[in-house]
Specification:
The structure holds three protein chains of three kinds. By secondary structure, chain A is mostly helical. Chain A has a single domain (26-356), classed as Cytochrome Bc1 Complex, Chain C, CATH 1.20.810.10. Chain A contains 15 helices and five strands. Chain A has a two-stranded antiparallel sheet with strand order 1-3. Chain A has a two-stranded antiparallel ribbon with strand order 4-5. Chain A is globular. Chain C folds into two domains: 7-195, no CATH class; 273-383. The relative contact order of chain C is 0.05. In chain C, helix 7 packs across helix 8. Chain C has 21 helices and no strands. The model of chain C is unreliable at 1-26 (pLDDT under 50). The chains are: A mainly alpha, B alpha+beta, C mainly alpha. At the A-B interface, helix 2, helix 4, helix 5, helix 9 and helix 10 of A face strand 1 and helix 1 of B.
C-alpha cells in the first residue's frame, strides 16, 4: 500500500528524482564534523518557534490594555498554556545560542570560503533577524522588565549618527515606548520578520544542499597527504538519523527547562512608574550595552558613544562581507581565526561583566 | 571482511585509498558531488564501499528495531501532540476575568445598599445611591488596605479600621485615608452588572 | 487682661532700624525675621518691642509674652484682615492649660508662645520648617519634656517623648508619612495642653479608634474600670509607648495584660484562654496558607484566588482582634472561625497548585522516558545501519 502511494505521488510530483539524488548525498565525517549539527538544531528551534508562536497567537492580544492579561490567561487558564509559553521563551534563548555556535563554528572551520559566500551572507542576515525576533518578542508580554528593557534597548539606537532619531521613532512608533510600540513590534514579530526569515532560510538551505557540507582546509590537507580521500557518511540514513538524535535531545532540554524553570509573568508594565533598578536588555544584547557603558565620553575629539556605534557598525558590515575579504589564503584564514577568537572573547568578557554588575 | 552486526559507522573507519569516488547519478546531479566544484578535487570525498552489498544485520532483528523505533517515535509524537490538542480546545472561561468581572444582579441591589465582590485578587464595592444610580469602586481603603463597607445610615463608604470615610463619588472626606478610591466603569447587560477597569 | 489695642495704632508704630546702628546682639534675630510671617504681613520690630528704642531691644519678660501676642491674635477684627479663618482663642486656651496656669502662678520655666512658635522666625503651622508642623511637634515638646533636668523640679519624668518615639504612632508618622497619626498635640491639645484625665483619656483615643471605643463601652469592662478608677485603653495599651498589640497579650500567664487583674484560678481564665486559642489557631492557619501560596508562587504558579481568600482571612483576623474589646468569647470567636475558613480555602488553593506542579513534573517524567526510549532505540539503529551498495 505504501508502495502504491509512493508511485501515485511520484507520477504527479516527480519527487523520485529528488529522493534518488538525496540517497547519493554524502556528509564528510571528521573530528570537526560534530559542528555540522548546529545548523540543523537552529532550524529545528526555528520550527519550534513557528509552531509555539502560532499557538500563542490563538490567545494573545496585542494591545497595551490586554497583552499582559492575555499572557496571564494563557499561563493560568489554557490547558498546557504554561508549557507552550515557556517552550517559546526558552527556545528563543536556545536558538540564539545555537545560531551563535553555528556562526562561530562556520567561521573557525572556514566554511565561508568560495563558493559559499552567499550562504555566509544569508546566514549573517539570518543572525540579525534572529536577534530582531528576540528583541521584538521580548516586549510582547508587556511586563515591567520587558517594557523598560525595550526602552533602554531602543535608546541605544539613538546613538547612531544622523539617522538615530528616525530609527528610534521607527522602532517605537512614536517618541516613547507605548501601546503603539507594542502593536508595531508585534507586527514585525509575527508577520514581517517571519516572511523575510522564511525566504532567507529557504535560500540558505538551498545553497547548502547545492554545495554540500564544507570540509575544513586542515582536514582536506591531511586527507590529501595521507589518504587522498575524506571519510564520509551517507546523508540518508546515517546523517539524518544523527540529526534526529540531536533534535530530540534539544526537545528534551526544552521540556525540562520549561517544567523546572518556567518563564515568569512579572508585574504589568506601568509607563508612568519610575524604572526599577537594574533594568537591562536580554542576555544576548548585554555585551553591547556594557560596551556603551564603559566607553569614555570623548575619543580623539569625537563623542565616545558615536565612535563605539560606528565601530560596531563597521564590525557588523565587515562580518557580513567577510568571504569577500578573506579566506582565500592560509594567512588570511589565520587572521580570520584570530579576529574571530578576539571577538568571541570580547563578547564573552562584556557579557560576563554585565551579568556580574547586577546588584541583587 | 568486517562483521555485519553492529558495524554501522565502524565501517567508515579506514577508508581504503582506492575506494571509489562518488559517481554522479544517472539521472542528473541535484546534490553535491565533488566533481561539480573544482576546489574539492584535491580531496575526493568518498563513500565507504565494500565490494559486496551487505544487507547489514539479520532482517528479523532489523525489523524489530524498526518496529521499536516506530513505537517510541510514536510515543514522542504523542507526547507532543497531546498538549497541543488540549491547548487548541478553548477553556471553560474563554476570557480573562481581570479586565472585567460580573458583580451580580442589578435588580437585587436596592437603593442605598452595596455589595462587595472580587475583582481579580482584590475586592471591589458596587453600590446603588439613594437616588438609584450605580457606582463601583475599589474596596481597598487607601489608608492601610482594610476592606471598606457601605454605611446606609451615613450614606457613605466607611472603613472600620480607623473610621475613614468616603463620599458616594469615592472621594476621601473624613478620617485618615489620604486618597480617593479607584473607580470602575459599570455596564449593565440583561440585569447583570459588569465592572471593568477605567483604561 | 489687657484690652486689645486698635489695629491702626499698632500699625502706626513703625520704627525702621538703621543698619549701621544694629549691634551684634540684635543682628542675628533680625536676619531670622526676614522669613517671619509677621514680616511678610508688614510688621516690624516695634510692633512687639513697644516703647523701646531702636538698637536696644530687649526680650519682654516671660510672663508678659502671651498677653503681648494676644493683643493681636485674640482680636478678631484685626486678625481677619490677614487670615479670615484663623482662630482667635489661643490665649483663652492657653490660660486653661497647665503651662498657662503655672505661668500665671509665677512659674516661668514653662512654655509660652515663643517657646513653641519661635520669636523672630515664626512660620505658619503648615510650613514644614515650622517647629509646630505635624512632623516636628514632638521634637519641639521634647525640648523640655524630654529633658530630665528640666522636668525634675516639677516632679515629672522626661520619658514621654522617647516613649512616643518607640510607639506605633511614631512609626506611622515618621516612617510611613501618615499625618493622621497623633503627635503630642493631638491627644494633649496644643494651646490648651493638659494631660487628659483618667475619665477622658478614652475619649481622646476614640477620636480615631472609634470601633474599639464603642465595643469597650458596650462591654462589662466600662463600669468595672470606672468603679476601680482605672483609665480605659491605658490599662492594657499604656499611653505614650503604645506598641503594636500582639495576640500573646491575651492570657493569664506572666507578660499578658489580662494577668494584671485576672488569675489562672478564676472563671474568666477559661474564657480568656478560649479567646486566645481562637486567635492563635487563626494565626497558625494564615501562616500555613501563606507559606503554601508563597512556595507555589516562587515555582511559577499564579494563585489569584488563593491570595484573595488569604486577604479575607487576614481581614477577619483584624476583625477578631478588634472584637476582643467586647471581652466576650462569641464575637471574636465567630470572626476567627470565618477567618479560619478563608485561610483553609487559601491553603487548599495553594495545595491544588502544588498538586498541579507535581502533575506537570510527572508529565515531564513520562515525556522524558519516551524521549530516552526513543533515543536509545535510535542509537541502536544508527549503530546497526547497513552499508550502501557501491
Amino acid at each position: 500500500m505504501g508502495g502504491q502511494l509512493r508511485a501515485w505521488l511520484d507520477e504527479r510530483l516527480a519527487l523520485g528524482e529528488v529522493i534518488e539524488a538525496l540517497h547519493h548525498k554524502t556528509v564528510p565525517h571528521h573530528r570537526y564534523s560534530i559542528w555540522y549539527y548546529f545548523g540543523g538544531t537552529t532550524l529545528f528551534l526555528f520550527a519550534v518557534q513557528v509552531v509555539t508562536g502560532g499557538l500563542l497567537l490563538l490567545y494573545y492580544r496585542p494591545s497595551a490594555g490586554e497583552a499582559y492579561e492575555s499572557v496571564q490567561f494563557i499561563v493560568t487558564r489554557v490547558p498546557f498554556g504554561w508549557l507552550v509559553r515557556s517552550v517559546h521563551a526558552w527556545a528563543a534563548n536556545l536558538m540564539v545560542a545555537s545560531v551563535v555556535a553555528h556562526l562561530f563554528s562556520v567561521l573557525f572551520l572556514h566554511a565561508y570560503r568560495r563558493p559559499r559566500e552567499l550562504t555566509w551572507v544569508s546566514g549573517m542576515l539570518l543572525l540579525f533577524l534572529t536577534l530582531a525576533f528576540g528583541f521584538t518578542g521580548y516586549l510582547l508580554p508587556w511586563n515591567e522588565v520587558s517594557f523598560f528593557a525595550t526602552r533602554v534597548g531602543t535608546d541605544l539606537a539613538a546613538a547612531v549618527p544622523i539617522v538615530g532619531g528616525s530609527v528610534v521613532r521607527f522602532l517605537r512608533g512614536g517618541d516613547d515606548v507605548s501601546g503603539a510600540t507594542l502593536t508595531r513590534l508585534f507586527g514585525f514579530h509575527v508577520a514581517l520578520l517571519p516572511a523575510t526569515a522564511t525566504g532567507l532560510v529557504l535560500l540558505h538551505l538551498l545553497l547548502v544542499q547545492r554545495h554540500g557540507m564544507s570540509v575544513p582546509p586542515s582536514i582536506e590537507h591531511r586527507a590529501t597527504v595521507e589518504r587522498g580521500t575524506v571519510r564520509a557518511m551517507p546523508f540518508i540514513p546515517h546523517f539524518l538519523l544523527r540529526d534526529l538524535f540531536a533534535w530530540t535531545i534539544v526537545l528534551a532540554a526544552l521540556a525540562a527547562l520549561s517544567t523546572f524553570y518556567p518563564w515568569e509573568l512579572g508585574a504589568k508594565a506601568d509607563p508612568f512608574a519610575p524604572a526599577p533598578a537594574g533594568i537591562r536588555p536580554e542576555w544576548y544584547f548585554l555585551w553591547a550595552f556594557e560596551l556603551l557603558k564603559h566607553v569614555p565620553p570623548v575619543i580623539a575629539g569625537v563623542n565616545g558613544e558615536l565612535v563605539a556605534v560606528l565601530l560596531l557598525g563597521a564590525g557588523g558590515v565587515g562580518a557580513v562581507v567577510l568571504p569577500f575579504l578573506a579566506g582565500h589564503t592560509a594567512r588570511t584564514r589565520r587572521a580570520v581565526v584570530w579576529a574571530g577568537a578576539a571577538a568571541l572573547a570580547f563578547i564573552t568578557l562584556m557579557t560576563g561583566l554585565a551579568l556580574s554588575a547586577v546588584a541583587p | 571482511m568486517p562483521g555485519s552486526a553492529g558495524a554501522g559507522i565502524a565501517r567508515f573507519r579506514g577508508v581504503p585509498a582506492s575506494a571509489a569516488r562518488l559517481a554522479p547519478t544517472a539521472r542528473g546531479e541535484l546534490f553535491a558531488s565533488p566533481e561539480k566544484f573544482p576546489i574539492e578535487r584535491r580531496a575526493a570525498i568518498a563513500v565507504v564501499s565494500t565490494p559486496e552489498v551487505t544487507t547489514g544485520s539479520a532482517p528479523g532483528r532489523r525489523n524489530i528495531l524498526n518496529w521499536l523505533l516506530g513505537l517510541w517515535g510514536g510515543g514522542v509524537c504523542g507526547a507532543i501532540a497531546y498538549p497541543i490538542a488540549r491547548y487548541l480546545a478553548p477553556p471553560d472561561i474563554p476570557e480573562s476575568a481581570t479586565q472585567s468581572v460580573s458583580a451580580g444582579s442589578a435588580k437585587s441591589l436596592a437603593p442605598n445598599s452595596a455589595r462587595v465582590v472580587a475583582f481579580g485578587s482584590r475586592p471591589a464595592i458596587v453600590l446603588r445611591t439613594p437616588a438609584g444610580e450605580l457606582r463601583a469602586f475599589s474596596a481597598t481603603c487607601t489608608h492601610l488596605d482594610c476592606t471598606v463597607q457601605y454605611r446606609p445610615d451615613l450614606q457613605r463608604i466607611w472603613c472600620a479600621c480607623h473610621n475613614g470615610q468616603y463620599d458616594l463619588n469615592g472621594r476621601n472626606i473624613a478620617g485618615p485615608p489620604p486618597r480617593p478610591l479607584e473607580s470602575f466603569d459599570i455596564n449593565v447587560r440583561d440585569d447583570e452588572i459588569a465592572l471593568s477597569r477605567r483604561s | 487682661m489687657t484690652a486689645p489695642r486698635s489695629g491702626a495704632a499698632t500699625v502706626l508704630v513703625m520704627v525702621i532700624a538703621t543698619a549701621p546702628q544694629i549691634s551684634a546682639q540684635t543682628s542675628a534675630p533680625t536676619a531670622a525675621f526676614a522669613d517671619d510671617v509677621h514680616a511678610s504681613a508688614g510688621l516690624t520690630c516695634g510692633a512687639c518691642h513697644m516703647r523701646q528704642a531702636a538698637g536696644s531691644y530687649t526680650a519682654p519678660p516671660r510672663n508678659a509674652i502671651a498677653p503681648l501676642c494676644a493683643t493681636c491674635h485674640s482680636d478678631a477684627a484685626y486678625m481677619r484682615r490677614f487670615a479670615p479663618q484663623v482662630r482667635i482663642d489661643q490665649f483663652l486656651q492657653y490660660q486653661t492649660s497647665t503651662h498657662g496656669r503655672r505661668m500665671a502662678g509665677g512659674e516661668t520655666a514653662v512654655a509660652t508662645c515663643n517657646d513653641c512658635h519661635g520669636a523672630h522666625g515664626v512660620r505658619r503651622v503648615a510650613d514644614a520648617r515650622s517647629p509646630v508642623a505635624p512632623l516636628n511637634v514632638t521634637t519641639t515638646c521634647a525640648r523640655c519634656h524630654g529633658d530630665a533636668a528640666h522636668m525634675k523640679p516639677f516632679g515629672r519624668t522626661a520619658a514621654a517623648p522617647a516613649d512616643w518615639g518607640a510607639s506605633v504612632h511614631a512609626t506611622a508618622l515618621l516612617q510611613r508619612g501618615d499625618t493622621s497619626a497623633p503627635t503630642c498635640a493631638a491627644c494633649h491639645g496644643s494651646h490648651g495642653a493638659t494631660p487628659p484625665g483618667i475619665t477622658s483619656v478614652a475619649n481622646v483615643c476614640a477620636q480615631c479608634h472609634v470601633r474599639e471605643a464603642e465595643l469597650f463601652r458596650a462591654s462589662p469592662k466600662k463600669e468595672i474600670f470606672e468603679a476601680i478608677g482605672q483609665a480605659e485603653c491605658l490599662v492594657c495599651h499604656t499611653n505614650h509607648r503604645i506598641e503594636p498589640p500582639s495576640d500573646h497579650w491575651i492570657g493569664v500567664a506572666d507578660g499578658a495584660v489580662c494577668e494584671q487583674c485576672h488569675d489562672a484560678a478564676g472563671e474568666s481564665a477559661k474564657a480568656i484562654g478560649a479567646i486566645r486559642a481562637a486567635l492563635d489557631g487563626l494565626s497558625a492557619e494564615i501562616a500555613a496558607a501563606d507559606a503554601a501560596l508563597g512556595a507555589v508562587e516562587r515555582a511559577g504558579m499564579p494563585v489569584d484566588e488563593g491570595r484573595l481568600a488569604l486577604r479575607t482571612a487576614r481581614e477577619q483576623q483584624v476583625q477578631a482582634r478588634v472584637l476582643v474589646h467586647t471581652f466576650a468569647l462569641q464575637p471574636p470567636g465567630e470572626a476567627a472561625a470565618k477567618g479560619t475558613a478563608a485561610a483553609r480555602q487559601a491553603l487548599a488553593a495553594g495545595q491544588a497548585a502544588a498538586r498541579e506542579l507535581q502533575i506537570r513534573r510527572t508529565g515531564l517524567g513520562v515525556a522524558t522516558l519516551l524521549i530516552i526510549g526513543f533515543l536509545i532505540t535510535l542509537w541502536l539503529k544508527i549503530r546497526r545501519l547497513p552499508d550502501l551498495p557501491s
